Amino acid sequence: MKFTKLSIENFRNFESATINIDNKNVIFGMNDIGKTNFLYALRFLFDPELRRNGFGPSDYNNHNVDKNISITITIDLSDFNQSEDTKKLVAAIHGAHTSPPLEEDLFYIQLKSEFNKKEEYGNIVMFWGSDYENLVEIPSRGNVSALDKAFKVFYVNPLVNLDRLFNKNKKLFFEQSEGQSADQDIIDTIKGLTCNVNDEIGKLTTIKKFQEEITKEYKTLRRENVSVELKSEMAIKGFFSDVIPYIKKDDDNDRYYPTSGDGRRKMLSYSIFNYLAKNKYEDKIIIFLIEEPEISLHRSMQISLSKKLFENDTYNYFFLSTHSPEMLYEMNNTRLIRVHSPEKINCCSYLYNVEEPYTSVKRKLNRSLASALFAERVLLVEGPSELTLFEKVLSMVKPDYELEGGFILQVGGIYFKHYTNALKELNIHYIVKTDNDLKRKKKKKGEYELIGLNRCLSLIDETKLDNEFIDIPEGMPDKEEKIFIKEEVQRKKEELYCKHSDIIETLKQNSIYLSRIDLENDLYKVIEDKMKEVFGENPVKQLQDSKLFNMVDLVIELDKQECEDIYNDENFYCLVELTNSTKQEGEDNVI
């Protein structure tokens, strides 16, 4: 069973949105943009307790009660032979599922609500079926429908109430039918002890005095042959009524600690949800709707919860809204859903996977991408030296760039495509700054791959360029040959930059900025005097030899004027685009 699409019409701040979804989904966006309403659309579909209340005028987009609310989810059931959950759903569907003559075996569940202006109430009617144009009403008895027999939704709000959650589910936790005969002797013993406890309580002077006085007061108000007595709730409601969870350390046999502390209470709440899913609703398809779980959780707890969500079989189906990069450390095969609003509420999504060669650095990739997801514009750079330089320049020239939606993402040299694919599909404007690298072909003297240019071309899905050649004279001493090759490679880079000026211009139109040679040479053309002051003669070589450490030394010495010179230089226009948003929000990085 696989969720594939969600359509929302005229519901709250969603006028009309159709979004691709999956079984594991992360929803993100600015505050007050509609993430909670996105989750509530799913709650109304799958939660009978919420549906029972129907809709009020404010649930209709802009209070437009003349148009119906419609929420539809599409499910792919083509894995019937492999998925137990698909079999559960098909069993609940009965005659509503008729496989259409299509390659995909799709099934639709739909909520519709027409507003009754006289009663100021929007009644909810549920439909389902395989033929979207001819859905049938879902059969129900009372407040329970056939749909609710197949699905169970757990909505986990940011401030989940542990006490309420525990008390609400006590009957499920401690069903008397479970182990009743085996525990009967223990139950009888507890009842006897409870009676003894109440007898002893009744002998207390303060209790006896209170009972006598309150009985007297009662009889002045009503003449009745009764008395008021105080009893433990345990004796009246049963011993489970007073049971609450405590924490006991493994090496401490006598001391119990209350489940205080927001982080501990939240993690215990998640444990309860897990227990219910595994032990009490195992016959149903469990959907988790989780809203901003990072609240009250320390960073390490967030990472731990991330691992549970993305790797634990309990969470086969979930929709998670978050503002925390740590919650996404372990994501893989996950649908990223961005809720944004250029003019009206809109959604875009991207199915995020960590490619097989990169699984060993999954957390590193996720950590970087997750931080960028919450920005409007992202500048991708190769490594830490570029990051160090650009952060210093912007701290002097545009110190509020992050508050205004900018973010610099270090990609680790080779992962540009991994990030740009995601950012493009999520409608997050990306900018690239990279070196004009050449790479010598192994065992082929003088032949070089244009890996800088080709890296950029791959980002816009254009054909890569053929290798180039450098004539290297025979018989040169090794030391002289190395110097010769280094100088010729640099000359070749500038030659290629000029030769392919049309490509360079196309790349710029797509916010991809290639250095004429490399970052160090770009920098030297702007702040030659400062680099010589810091590094002496041949500062470019100095900076290249120990790039990060020397870059740190350099940026410490940069003053505001030098930072402004770098910012305004054409070779660093990427910084202007990052901070000035020269492209309108939502414009794709395409030719």
TrEMBL record:
Domain of life: Bacteria
SUPFAM superfamilies on file: P-loop containing nucleoside triphosphate hydrolases
Residues of the OLD protein-like TOPRIM domain: 373-437
Chain ranges of the Endonuclease GajA/Old nuclease/RecF-like AAA domain: 1-327
UniProt name for this protein: AAA family ATPase
